[in-house]
Design the sequence.
DNA sequence: CTGAAAGCGCTTACAG
DNA sequence: CTGAAAGCGCTTACAG
């Protein structure tokens, strides 16, 4: 067995042309039963497998999807990665991973890199892209989907959960439970996700004729969220805190407990995402569930649709609603039952 | 701007040959200052970027490293992924991700897939490979490194932490603190990692003239670990439990607390990995730190070494020792101070 | 159904 | 330093 077997070598051994070999390995191409047999036999004996890169070059389809991701400490993203990878793998695609640097410039460079690999599509999770890059991708005919992030006037498909509705649900639940000093540690205000959750939250509060006692930007960071919690404690005496995502909510709970406060009794905490850890005993976090499966499905089908039909590049936004998962980190409204779920 | 710009188009606009364009974009190739200028200008105007796939075909180097990973719920792996990706990105390589199915057959198929992409190397994290596949990879000249997993007589490079030493440290610490009914919920016994941690642990116990009161296989699963905890509680009355990894240790702690047991006082719990969450207030887990940075470095350099020098494929095992991180989930030995760290 | 041939977009000896 | 040409390993009209 030598290093690399080519279709030409298989052809020779099978006594057919190289084209015939190619056809046998091309789904949908026609070859007689006899040819197929001869070729398969020779291929097996030689250990032949088609070179995907060569195939990509001529077909113009690499079957690679570029994924830009950051913030892997937040359990949400590994879960997304896993589900996305599984879904794509089933369709014969694979994920080329690019971990994102923090600057916008850095991201652009990374995406350029990605495009150099002739990816068939790009999924950008929790990062923003410059309009310059938007243009390049569009002109290169590469579909881009923004995952869990929106961008004004972007030409991309955007898949998010319905953050506004989610924020509203939280406010309503807190109000129903009779909280009167409600604070918010928001997701990073530079992200649509952070802004929208806050927006829905405030809107519902407003409609109920009240308002939050304080809103601090948690920057999606554990450390910042902890500092915010202390500030809330010393300056505002909140009886409930809505936190922009679960990752920060865990930090808030840790801080509250360290200060001797009983979470769910003295102060209610609600998060957003419903990462697996939220259900673990140590936190038992009431939170809005991001419908990851449906978000992944929407992402994959947007990608496939564009790949199959490059002309119709309809920019659009899918905001999928997710339920409030009630656990014990927040006081429940009187007479509340699980029936709603 | 059209969809895809080729070097030939740049050449035409710059008034040079296509080879000249290629040279300008090939590090180390020679071109006159004048040529470089003309080409760069034309390339910028056209928005040209070399096609990595075409380059890969002729050079035989795809600059893609295949990563096979499973078990992404365990925070350890996302961290590894992130660090590995960053390190590789700096060297101009990128990771093509394959999420592993559970069966050995499945894994083999996945690796075959990987090889079809002409990856320059493969990193298999927490999975085992068949010897058949080992042979294929070796014959294709593709370096494989097993990450956090060893395999008897494997021809691969293996990078792990020193699991035996780690297990020993845990036993010693528990003994020093005066525990007398020490139990073990081990990592999956089908994995070298699980077996070795247990082995070191038992060896140290043995040398001290004692033995663990029970050893149960936690299978790296949260649910199984919880069931094991209950069984330990009802049948063995342990005063300490060494758990095969942090991910399971969290489940053990949750279960203990649900039974009203004070962790760190009534029963000590020690994990293995030191994932970020281990330091969070809710768990405050005493654990062995896996030296991820050094493990990633070792992985990357093994890969690069083989890529630069395909002939020398020295199979070897690197087991890097990590420290015991003392927190509050386990009772400390009398007079214990942090000095050791 | 099948083979010969062109071509995907590059790199790299080979001559100059 | 530079250009013409071969070749990387395939797919896909084009004729038969």
Sequence:
């Amino acid at each position: 067995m030598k290093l690399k077997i080519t279709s030409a070598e298989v052809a020779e051994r099978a006594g057919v042309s190289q084209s015939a070999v190619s056809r046998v390995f091309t789904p949908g191409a026609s070859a007689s039963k006899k040819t197929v047999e001869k070729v398969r036999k020779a291929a097996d004996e030689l250990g032949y497998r088609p070179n995907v890169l060569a195939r990509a070059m001529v077909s113009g389809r690499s079957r690679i999807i570029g994924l830009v991701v950051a913030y892997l400490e937040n359990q949400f993203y590994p879960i997304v990665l896993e589900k996305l990878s599984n879904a794509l793998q089933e369709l014969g695609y694979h994920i080329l991973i690019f971990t994102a640097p923090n600057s916008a410039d850095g991201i652009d460079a990374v995406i350029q890199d990605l495009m150099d690999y002739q990816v068939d599509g790009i999924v950008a999770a929790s990062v923003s892209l410059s309009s310059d890059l938007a243009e390049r991708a569009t002109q290169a005919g590469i579909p881009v989907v923004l995952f869990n992030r929106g961008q004004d006037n972007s030409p991309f498909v955007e898949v998010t959960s319905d953050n506004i509705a989610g924020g509203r649900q939280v406010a309503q639940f807190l109000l129903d439970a009779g909280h009167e000093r409600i604070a918010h540690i928001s997701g990073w205000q530079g992200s649509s996700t952070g802004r929208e959750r806050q927006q829905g939250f405030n809107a519902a509060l407003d409609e109920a004729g009240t308002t939050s006692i304080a809103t601090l930007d948690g920057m999606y960071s554990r450390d910042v969220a902890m500092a915010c919690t202390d500030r809330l404690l010393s300056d505002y005496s909140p009886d409930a805190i809505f936190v922009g995502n679960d990752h920060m909510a865990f930090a808030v709970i840790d801080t509250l407990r360290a200060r001797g406060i009983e979470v769910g009794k003295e102060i209610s905490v609600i998060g957003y995402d419903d990462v697996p850890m939220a259900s673990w005993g140590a936190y038992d976090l009431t939170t809005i569930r991001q419908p990851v499966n449906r978000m992944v499905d929407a992402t994959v089908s947007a990608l496939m649709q564009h790949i199959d039909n490059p002309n119709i590049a309809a920019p659009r936004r899918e905001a999928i609603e997710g339920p409030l998962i009630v656990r014990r980190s927040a006081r429940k409204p009187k007479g509340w039952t699980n029936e709603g779920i």
In short: Chain A has twelve helices and twelve strands. The two ends of chain A are 59 Å apart (CA to CA). Chain A touches chain B through 56 residues (CB under 8 Å). Residues 16-20, 23, 30-32, 35, 54, 56-60 of chain A lie near DNA strand C (CB under 10 Å from a C1').
